[in-house]
Design a protein that fits this description.
single chain, Jelly Rolls, four-stranded antiparallel beta sheet, 11 strands, globular, Discoidin domain-containing protein
Length: 182
Amino acid sequence: MKKVVLSLLAGITLLITSCDKADGVLFEDQSTAIKADKTSWTATADSETPDGFENTGKASALLDNNIATYWHTDYSVTNPNYPHWVLIDMKKDYKLVTVVVTNRQAATPNRSGMKKFSLEGSTNGTTFTSLGTFNFAITNDPQSFKVSAANAYRYLKLTALESQTGTTRHTFLAEIDVFTVK
């Protein structure tokens, strides 16, 4: 009788865990996903720091694998308000599993960037599908955001929706990486 009950419990556990499974799981050894090579990718944004105002600030800094450089919206003259967006052309379709976003680096984590953002995917750069809305923590560490791998996308759009302070008009980020289905 014990064996029957244990077998029944094991079967129920298997049934429960097989329902509502994530589209992909990113293990520490990255056994189900791979980091996409972004060397040929391009990035554009609604706003960038003008030439000569800082040593960086362009959307392309999000793709250079260097957390010391960063994209920064223009706050020199126009200082546009939220929302702010960056659009990444990955040059081919990917089934995304996780998007990793790294804040602009500072001695103490920068507290005036974005607080909430959305991710969207697109096959043509004009029609977008929501991949979710997320909260962004105040940290220098990379932050991982899981998305559905149900569809493949060529374009990834991150839209900063609100600032950490509620009054800051600009935002910035150091890097964006994606992990894709192997």
